[in-house]
Amino acid sequence: MRVLIAVHGFPPTHYAGAERAAERIVHWLVNQGHEVEVFTLEQLDAPHTHLDTTSEDGYVIHRLNYDLRARTKFHHSYDHPAVGKAFESVLSKSRFDVVHIISGYLLGGQIIHLAKSFGIPVVLTLTEYWFMCSRLNLLQSNGALCSGPETDEKCARCLLEERRRFRLPSLLVPALADYFWSVTNHRLPVFQDKIRNMARRRQMLREAFNTADIIISPSRFLIHKFAEYGFDTTHCVYIRHGLTPTHPISSQPRTFHPGETLRLGYIGQIKRHKGTDLLIDAVLPLLDDGFDISLEIWGPENEALNYAARLRRRTQKHPAIQWKGSYDASQVWDVLSRFDALVISSRWYENSPTVITEAFTAGLPVIATNLGGMAELVEHEKSGLLFELNNADDLRRQIRRLIDEPELLRQLREGIPATKSAEEEAAEIFEQYLKVVVKV
Fold first, then answer.
1. Do 12 and 46 sit in the same domain of this protein?
2. 37 shares its domain with 129
3. Which of 120, 282, 310, 428 could crosslink 115 through cysteines, CB 3.0-4.6 Å?
4. What is the CATH number of the domain that holds 345?
5. How far separated are the first and last CA of the chain, in Å rounded?
6. Taking a C-beta distance cutoff of 8 angstroms, is the pair 201, 134 a contact?
7. pTM of the predicted model, to two decimals?
8. Is residue 296 part of a domain?
9. Whole-angstrom Cα distance, residue 207 to residue 227?
10. Is 405 found in the same domain as 369?
11. How many domains does the chain have?
């Protein structure tokens, strides 16, 4: 079978969740003897648009370099002509049996329509909320969790509040900002323009979503959220992420005894929507009260410099909190072996965090926000503990339970579910390919 995988980034230069999901399926297909090509976005600030095509590890990869910042219209954020032209050139040079799109972010709904115009069936894997939310993660510009795109007016306001002059009133005097938008919004040309932009985006991406032959989601929550806002989810298939360690897990988790240091770990982006500050708010009072806890924070600090710097200043008097920086993907098992439990304090509707699967594979229970795909993966008081969204006090209570209840950590480890292998996940995905190819 000839398969074209499309994703907004690809290793080794891009290595987040969607990129890793694409890499897993590419390697499995190549190992099974299928012909694979990858279309991806490499450099988003390139002075000249160009498509680099190379052969790597048994597959062909097309890396598009273009300048996203030079876009002149809002719809270029989800329908960029450079992306469409490059993707069409790849489609015209080979005959593919199926196009598999991972996420769709920045690639746009256009690539679904282009593939269909060539008579190629399309499989789409969802990794976040991009088809319904221009901010990707259903978080408003003020950091508040958004229920969803009820109206184009609501989304237009959110978009406008990315600008400082609109965002500050919303942060400082929210009631007054609400009144302003309710009374004067229809008199503002800029607001009407944004409403039209959001309506166009909603129509195009919903149509593209509904046009895909099969949509794969690694969480049931994500499917339910799209269905809630009018997307056709009858062609959605639930396939949980798989994971096969490429390096041996260095050691099994230690046996924790009362009186020993409870070792907590955080792995992820150091950003507000990831709730790193919530974790620190939860841990600092415990340290001040003399509890024997350590916290290692692993993740890049250069993506939100001011945020990370503020948190570092708050923790500088506490040597038990260590900032470890970034790590190579091959080191993840060594990093996880340093913890007794992993904490995920995210503020947004995480879909299916790979780090939870990694923690379970390493035998670690997880303390996570009772929200979205996190609550779907972590079963409270069985494989981990859940705490209330944005509630540092509740997170602190759950952490303290691991100290106050000597048998709890052992019980949670015993309740960790078996994890699916990457090979099993890829085989399930390939079964979906066969369905659409046979149909064609």
1. yes
2. yes
3. 120
4. 3.40.50.2000
5. 13
6. yes
7. 0.87
8. yes
9. 14
10. yes
11. 2
Host domain of residue 395? 262-414
In a domain, 160, yes or no: no
Per-residue pLDDT of the chain (440 residues; tens, 9 = 90+): 999 999 999 988 887 778 888 999 999 999 999 999 999 999 988 889 999 999 988 999 999 999 887 656 888 888 899 999 999 999 999 999 999 999 999 998 999 999 999 999 999 999 999 999 998 889 888 788 998 999 998 898 888 887 776 666 666 566 666 666 666 666 778 888 888 999 999 999 999 999 999 999 999 999 999 999 999 999 999 999 888 776 656 555 666 667 789 999 999 889 999 999 999 999 999 999 999 999 999 998 888 899 999 999 999 999 999 999 988 777 888 899 999 999 999 999 998 888 999 999 999 999 999 999 999 999 999 999 999 999 999 999 999 999 999 899 999 999 999 989 999 999 999 999 999 997 65
Residue 22 to residues 17, 29, 36, 155, 347: CA-CA distances in angstroms?
9, 11, 12, 30, 25
Q: How far apart are CA 111 and CA 21, in angstroms?
A: 19
Residue 163 counted as domain residue: no
Place of tokens 């990315």: 162
Question: Which residue reads 């907004």 in tokens?
Answer: 8
Strand segments, DSSP code E, in 91-219 are: 98-102, 122-125, 214-217
